[in-house]
Design a protein that fits this description.
- The chain has 449 residues and is an all-alpha fold.
- It has one domain.
- It is 84% helix and 0% strand.
- Helix 10 packs antiparallel against helix 11, helix 11 packs antiparallel against helix 12 and helix 15 packs parallel to helix 17.
- It is globular.
Length: 449
C-alpha cells in the first residue's frame, strides 16, 4: 500500500517511508567508500592523500544543492500540505532550474582556482598535482552533483522515496564499475577515480531530470514557471542550515587535516580519510532518516496537524535512541577490521587509524539527535533555529574542540574533538526543543500519544 504524507504514521509506516532515503544515503556513502578502497589499494597512498585533501573543497561547492534540497523541500511540502499542488510544482521547477544554473557558474568560476586552493589547504608536491587533476575533472560534473543532492530530498516529497533509491543505486553502480575499469584496468590512477565519480554524478543528476520532465505518478513534475525571488529567498533561508553545515564540515575537515599534519604528518591525513569514509556510511543512516521525516513534518505543519507532529517527533526520538547506541557499539567493536580494509599495507598507520576510529565513534551516540533537530526546524520553515544548531554543531563547537583538546590530550584530543562537540550540540538541541515547543506543539505535555 502506498504511504502518503497525510497518513497517520505508526513505527512500521514511518520506517517503511524512511527506508528508501536511508538506503539511498547508505548506498551513496558505500560507493564513496568503495572509491576510497580502489584508490588506496590500487592507485597508491599519494592519490589517496590527494583526494582527502581536496574533496572537502568539492563538497563545499556541492553544498548549495543540499541547501536548495532541504530548503526547497520545506517550502514545497508545506505548500502541498496547504493543498496548493500547482504552486508546489512551479516552486519545484524554479528551484531545480536555479540550482543547475548556479552549478554551471560555480564550475566555470572555480576550475582554474583549484591549484592555489589546494596549495592553501596544505597539499604539496605530487599530492598537490594529483589533487588538482582529481578536482578539475570532478568539477566538470558539479552541476549534476548539485542536482543529485537536490533530488535526494525531492523524491521523498514527491512520495517516491524508492525511486530515489533506484536512481542512487544506478549512480553508485556506475561509479564502482568505472572505478574498476579506469583505476585497475586502464591504470589511470587518480584521474580514473575522478572520471568514474563524475560519470556517476552525471547519471544521478540526469535521470531524475528525465523522470520529472515526463508524465509521472508522483506529486511533482516540471511545469512552466516565473522567476520568484521571494520563494528563492525563503528556500535559501530555510536551507541555510544545511548549506552552513556542509560548508562547516568541509572546513573542519581541512582544519583536521592541518592539525593532523602538524601532529603526525601525512599519515594522520590518511587515517582521518579512512575514518571519514566510514563515518559517511554510519551518518548516512541519520541523514536518510531526516530526509524521510522532513516532508512529513513540513506537510503536517502546513496542514496545522499538531497531533501528527507530536506523533512523528515522539517516535523519532525513540528510533534515534536505539539506532545511536547500536551504531556506536558496532563502530567501536569493528574498528580494527575496518581499518585493515583500507590501510593493511602499514602497521603503524593501521594502529593509528583503528584507535582514532574507536575514539571518534563515540560521536554516534549524540549526532543523530543533533541532525534531526536541525532538519526538524528546517521542515518547520524555521531556518534561523536550524542554522544556529547546525552552525554551532558543525563549526563553532568543532573548532573550539579541535584547537583546545589536543593541547591536553595530543593526538587523542583530535579524535575526541567531534564526540565532545556533538555532546555540547546535543545540549543546545534540547534547549531549542524546549523553548520552541509552545510555538509548534510537537511535544505532547500531560497527554498520552
Amino acid at each position: 500500500m502506498k504511504i502518503q504524507l497525510s497518513d497517520n504514521f505508526t513505527y512500521g509506516r514511518l520506517l517503511r517511508f524512511c527506508l528508501g532515503p536511508i538506503l539511498m544515503m547508505i548506498f551513496t556513502s558505500i560507493y564513496s567508500v568503495v572509491d576510497g578502497i580502489f584508490v588506496s589499494n590500487f592507485a597508491g597512498d599519494i592519490p589517496f592523500k590527494a583526494i582527502n585533501y581536496i574533496f572537502p573543497v568539492i563538497m563545499i561547492l556541492g553544498a548549495v544543492g543540499f541547501m536548495f534540497g532541504a530548503g526547497g523541500t520545506a517550502v514545497v511540502s508545506k505548500t502541498l500540505g496547504e493543498k496548493d499542488g500547482p504552486s508546489a510544482n512551479r516552486y519545484f521547477t524554479l528551484i531545480v532550474t536555479v540550482t543547475f544554473v548556479l552549478g554551471v557558474i560555480f564550475a566555470a568560476g572555480f576550475f582554474f582556482m583549484l591549484r592555489p586552493i589546494g596549495a592553501m589547504i596544505g597539499a604539496t608536491g605530487a599530492v598537490l598535482d594529483d589533487a588538482v587533476v582529481y578536482s578539475q575533472i570532478l568539477i566538470l560534473a558539479l552541476p549534476f552533483f548539485m542536482l543529485q543532492n537536490l533530488f535526494q530530498s525531492f523524491f521523498i516529497t514527491a512520495e517516491k522515496p524508492r525511486l530515489g533509491f533506484v536512481f542512487t543505486l544506478v549512480s553508485g553502480v556506475t561509479n564502482m564499475v568505472f572505478d574498476a575499469v579506469f583505476i585497475i584496468g586502464c591504470k589511470m590512477g587518480v584521474a580514473g577515480a575522478a572520471i568514474g565519480t563524475a560519470m556517476s554524478q552525471a547519471v544521478g543528476g540526469i535521470l531524475p531530470l528525465i523522470y520529472f520532465f515526463c508524465p509521472n505518478s508522483s506529486l511533482l513534475r516540471f511545469v512552466p514557471f516565473r522567476l520568484n525571488l521571494r520563494v528563492i529567498g525563503k528556500v535559501c533561508v530555510n536551507g541555510s542550515s544545511e548549506l552552513l553545515g556542509n560548508i562547516a564540515m568541509s572546513l573542519v575537515s581541512i582544519i583536521y587535516n592541518w592539525q593532523l599534519t602538524r601532529t603526525v604528518g601525512d599519515d594522520g591525513v590518511a587515517a582521518y580519510g579512512v575514518i571519514m569514509y566510514v563515518q559517511f556510511v554510519f551518518v548516512a543512516i541519520f541523514i536518510g532518516y531526516c530526509l524521510g521525516v522532513a516532508p512529513i513534518v513540513g506537510y503536517n505543519y502546513g496542514a496545522q496537524n499538531r497531533a501528527q507532529l507530536q506523533n512523528v517527533f515522539k517516535k523519532s526520538m525513540i528510533i534515534l535512541t536505539v539506532t545511536s547506541v547500536a551504531m556506536a557499539a558496532f563502530a567501536i567493536s569493528l574498528a580494527d577490521v575496518i581499518a585493515r580494509i583500507f590501510v593493511s599495507y602499514s602497521e603503524v598507520l593501521l594502529q593509528m587509524t583503528a584507535r582514532g576510529m574507536r575514539l571518534y565513534s563515540i560521536c554516534y551516540l549524540f549526532c543523530g539527535y543533533c541532525m534531526f533537530c536541525s532538519s526538524f526546524f528546517t521542515a518547520l520553515s524555521n531556518g534561523l533555529i536550524s542554522a544556529i544548531v547546525s552552525f554551532g554543531r558543525t563549526l563553532v563547537f568543532q573548532l573550539v574542540c579541535i584547537f583546545v583538546l589536543p593541547l591536553w590530550l595530543g593526538l587523542d584530543g583530535i579524535w575526541l574533538s567531534t564526540p565532545v562537540a556533538e555532546l555540547v550540540a546535543l545540549l543546545l538541541c534540547l534547549v531549542m526543543f524546549a523553548v520552541n515547543n509552545k510555538r509548534y506543539g510537537y511535544i505532547a505535555i500531560g497527554r498520552k500519544m
